[in-house]
Amino acid sequence: MDFQAEVGTWLAAHLLARMPVGGRFGLANTALPVSIQLETGDGLDDIRLEQDDASRIDLQSKTSAGLARSPKSPLGKTISQLARLMIDARDAGVAIDPAKARAVLAVAADAPRTLDALERGCRAFDLGGSWDTTKAGRSSAERDALDLFEMHARIAWASMSATPPTDDDLVMMAGLFRIARFSMNECEENWREASRLIGGRLYGSQASGDAPLRDLKGIIRSMIGNGAPADRAGLLRELRRLGHKDVGAADYTADLGRLSATTGAELARLAGHTRLPIAGGISIARASDGPLRAAVASGSLIVIGEPGAGKTGALVTLAETRRAAGDTVVFLSVDRFPGVGIAANLQSELGLEHPLVDVLSAAPGLGAKLLIIEALDAARGGPAEGVFAQLIETLGASATDWTIIASIRSFDLCNGRRFRDAMPGSPPDQAFAEPGLANVRHFQVPRLAEEDLDAAGAAAADLGSLLAAAPEKLHDLLRNVFNLSLAAQLLSDGAKPDSIRTVATQSDLIDAYEDGRLIGTSLHEAAAATVGAMVSRRRLAVRKVVVGHGQLDTVIQTGVLTDSGDLVSFAHHVLFDHVAGRFFLEWDDPTRLIGQLGGDSSIALMLAPALRFAIERLWRHDADGKAQVWCLVAEIYADAAVDPVLANVALRTAIERVATPSDVAGLVALIAARPNDEALVTMLSRLARFVGLAVDTAGTIVASEAIAWAQVADAAIATGSRGLSDATRVLLHTMFDKGDLTEAELLDVFGRAAPALLAFAWAADPPMQQTATNSIRFVGKSFASDPAASRTLLDRMLRDPHFSAHVPIGKPPGFPSRSCRSRGSTPTSRSKSTASYIRATSPTTVPLISAGRRAGSCRSRQAAVRITAIAAINSAGA
Fold it and tell me: Is 795 helix (H, G, I), strand (E, B) or coil?
């Protein structure tokens, strides 16, 4: 076993040093070992060495083998294993390639010299020839050795196969067979060679190899018991764990140097994201920087945040801090590699001689290693997305000692399953987690804290003046790093704080920035042409020559665009989104706009944020009622070529801008005009749920908005459309939970829509029992809006079949749901629950009568409930 470990150690040392071994065993001396396994269980099963050209070397280790005749001798057993390998390949229909396989009998340096005759005899077949003819031409000692080889081969073959080996089989076996002597005791030749090799290529000097080689032998010895393969990265990790700090990377040193240079250049290019462009450049220090560092220290994760949250600046600061501490950092920006479609393209773009994963795995040292992939969303669904996703997945699956940090917009992560699956786990800090991503390891970069704004204001007087007097909406806008940077740039350009205080939206702020730079139609056209080139190629960086506009260089000079070599991109992804929404998307022509949105899912990721800006712009230009906006959204839903993600973005953008009933007048008219439009049904169903989500997030809803959505619910049910009734039900439920129904106008609209929904549900065929059950609650809560009509409806409710269908099994929130037949219910508890229901759904409190308490059957209890409800109706009408 010790000799087996010694042979394995020599092989493993070459694997670590990335040096070929094939030449020693008659194979091409260009392939590199990639994995080693001991006790494989098949073939010559002591050691198996796999190489990067798909060749394989199987070794049997026998310290003192000789030319023995016994089949159980070391030589006999080894040849028997070779025969098994040949027969298994034949039975499987696999042809053994003699240029890709070797069967080696490894012996000690002092093993009997008679073995040399067998080795020389076998080598006579390397150039071909028949078994008998070639053997006849050898020396007497070699013929005797070959006769012994043939005897062992035929005996073994007969025990495994009904047909004897052919002459060709014997020639193939002799060609594959090798005898190799090893001297791996310390200070012996092979030990010294292996020690110098790993010392010089991994540990700084040839004299530094003995200690790691001793521990490498221990690692190899432990592999005898488990039979698991090991690769270079795994062996290095174990040696590092044992305290051996590698300082060299064998033949990866040049590639690692290229990655370091790329990282330095990229950090310099992005340094502006760490400063505000005012007062000579104010460093953006954030309260979230410390928690981000702690999260990264806990392992790989995805950094997310809204567009402009400052993800890039936070990661550049993190990278600079870690580099200064001596850690190995590689920083790659996805938008710098727009043309990559496969991993080999990325390798080529980086100028690497080896695949990127191999280079990263070869990085030396015990120190922390950090790979930062910035702006995955820059791929926008293009081919580069798959390349970087595969990089993350491969490194994550290889148990590498690299920590992987990738950034992406929250929107893209929520809509992209692959990146979510690439980072499984729980968020390391719940204070910086996105709801709905509980199973993804991520860190959400938040908006700036008040202390962050205070620090920025203290460093620049004009910025401090703007922040001090900013209205609430503007103040909230400026908590976004991108927005704050734009405001700082405007102030640096000479704008007065008072001129910025009127800004209410991000689009207004970017408009002001662009208006000061993109002066004239030709620059607008150049910016739009740049977006067009990017959209057609599904990438956020393109070659300047493909833009095809004479004013491109002028736009670059304004700072809206930036160039790097022959590539051009927008200075910030939000600027791409805004320019696309303002100058590229034809928001004033719905037909042409929808045509621009059609295509595969990648166009949705590319243009979703831009569509948001376009809808906002149309909203500002639209007349009261916003008919153009609502018609556009409906047409987007109606076009099957448009990804639903874009339709939902358009709808939610419109929803967020609704403030008064006049904002939905166009939608109400659209509902009345197109009640049977399937696309409109889908749109309103989603609208109702989006409104509910928004109200739940806010925790409340102002009266004017509640009235607007109640009017939409009323318009939908007034059409008598079963499909539109779903939107009515969901919207009324939101108003029921969050709306203030003491407000007269809201109560009036709610009180009109709720009875209409209940009557519709009762009349529907097939029945709409759940809708009816909900509607009863709505009618009860809005009783005072029209007592007479409500009394009539509730009276109908108390008569079969409506009473039996809804009262026994229905329950308002917080009340028991068991029917009279439910185990454990009692007449008293059931009567109390029903009375509580009447109190909860009616604004009038009525006394309970005792009949329900005394009732002993479901029928008598239902009668008691009728009496109680009728008392409530009469009391409400008094």
Answer: helix
